[in-house]
Amino acid sequence: MTLGSPKVSKTHSFMTVSLIELWERFGYYGMQALIVYFMVQRLGFEDSRANLVWSACAALIYVSPAIGGWVGDKILGTKRTMLLGAGILSLGYALMTVPTENTWFLFSALGVIVVGNGLFKPNAGNLVRKIYEGDDSKIDSAFTIYYMAVNVGSTFSMLLTPWIKDYVNANYGNEFGWHAAFAVCCVGLLVGLGNYAMMRKTLANYGSEPDTRPVEMNKLFAVLGLAALSVVASAFILEYEDVARAFVYTAGAAVLGIFIYLIKNSETSERAGLIAALVLTVQTVFFFVFYQQMSTSLALFALRNVDWNFQAFGVDLWTWSPAQFQALNPIWIMLLSPVLAWVYASAGRNNKDISIAAKFALGFAVVALGFFIYSFAGMFAVDGKTSSWVMIWGYGAYSLGELLVSGLGLAMIARYVPERMGGFMMGAYFVASGISQYLGGVVANFASVPKNITDPLETLPIYTSLFNKLGIAALVCTFIALAVLPLMRRLTETHHSHNGNGSADSAQ
Length: 508
Description:
Elements: H1 10-42, H2 47-63, H3 65-75, H4 78-95, H5 103-131, H6 136-172, H7 177-199, H8 217-239, H9 241-265, H10 268-291, H11 297-305, E1 309-312, E2 315-319, H12 328-349, H13 356-375, H14 388-405, H15 409-416, H16 422-444, H17 456-483, H18 485-499
Antiparallel strand pairs: 1-2
């Protein structure tokens, strides 16, 4: 919805949303870089429990936007809900700075983060959609740049928080370094809120209908009350594995049912676009199973079976903490995003852009390449330790696949879903992603290492076996994505013809 205010450059509006998203991702990925290590090394969790707790939390973090999008669309307004979410997130990271080993306290802090993310995430993405609505080629390009911008924040936090943890622990002789690192995540959110306060006028033209009215305090208190109950429910889900499993699978059934209901009851002109969105959302579910390995099996692989010294021609260049290897993902994304954005925009101007469905198929193929690189690591390992360059090139392929699939997921919703369903469907997309995050943790547990096994020569084949199977699975997803291309082309042509958007999405 465009609001009645003086005209502001779309670029400035886009920059405002991108910057607060950058700082939100700074906080989230700074925490993600350490959370599995924190549970395994600080709290003494088994690999399997740490993987499933974090994956269940990631699932909740992705599921919660389904409600947050609706709150933004219908209750508080897109911009207000986004800001409320950022404030709650800062509280969640602040709670993680408390030096306690009580698991219920940790799960409660993670519950606050779940709620804050649910309110923030869909509304930030929906604002970008509103800024570039009606221009398909610019939406693809904008969301790719948006994806790059937020990875600036995650890069710095993934490099910074492990260093702070190691520095404080080494110099003060205790375990407070973990909590000092989590404090940095809180500071990031506060900086983001301050930055938004200075630039808020650039978004005066954009928002949902409730943004045009004064805040209704009864609705605000109702949202806050439900948020508090959601924190308790999230902590309970994280505490009990069976409850987490039941919740995630129920959420999956609910999303599928809602999609089917909307398709069945939508206008004829909307149906093809919704079916196309469903097909691509299912493919996204498979992608995020692979994506979740970054903070689970790949993170523990880096801890136990990777030489942390970067070498070239036999010379040590630098040394990283194992948690810092996760920063390779956003670094590659920052390098590749401008290239892809230029390719998309150039192809769009010349009517030669390939469809989102074709980009998804290509994305799965390069993800497969990344996991095969990891699986071949054992061939070059010395005493069970493989070169850091395996991580660099593996993450390179992995990140290109992420840009082609996850990077365009929100653009897919923006392109195919009617405006009146925008916030809710953004949320539904995140629910589907969350389900696969949990499934990713289940998959990662195939490489769980018992506590009594510490020899790298014993742990290496456990990881490489899983990575080889994941590479094969990604290839299967590639062939499935290619097989549905003709269907996607027909759906896209029908969607465009009903909505007056000209020619089809472009040649396969």
